[in-house]
Design a protein that fits this description.
It catalyses: Hydrolyzes the link between N-acetylmuramoyl residues and L-amino acid residues in certain cell-wall glycopeptides. The protein is an alpha/beta fold. It has five helices and eight strands, in the order αβββαβββαβαβα.
Amino acid sequence: MSDTDRRLGRRALFVGGTAAAVGTAALAREELRHLWWRLPGVERPRVAGAVDFRGARWVAASSANYRRADRPDDYPVDRVVVHVTQGSYASAVKVFQDPAHGAAAHYIVRKDGRITQLIRELDVAFHAGERAYNERSVGIEHEGFVDDASSFTDAMYSSSARLTAAICGRYGIPVDREHIIGHVEVPGTDHTDPGPHWDWERYLQKIKS
């Protein structure tokens, strides 16, 4: 190998090492951006039982089914994910309070339109089955079954639309099907909700009105 080759080799090694170091530093900064709020005295004040949507009832999910965060400062929120419980309201609350279940949504909307919040929007709920989507979205469950059209009442659509409109307004989320999605549309999911009976056109019209 000539001296020129050696110099080029050393330069390539230096450049490659610098690029790797820069990449590592960038990853470290990104991780710190997600963790800074955990320092003593930094975390945003929280009030026990507080809700993000006026009129919602607070029922806490198990802390095993979500991760504390400080969204949108550490994770931008740009999606709403629509779910269906595949069961009653009571059964959904029961599993979301079960630490062994491993999942929970931020909200449940009942057939009669009443709304329960189980996880603060600040926090990352384990609802979508995909980490990046959990971090970037708010999950809303709807009482009922995907194969039962009668599950989706006008009271439910109206209440859920008001909730979603408030979430979109809070985070600047566009009201469209790219940003308001069904669980079935999350990459890698094996879920089918909200199913073929969910009226997306009706829902988006209500959100916009």
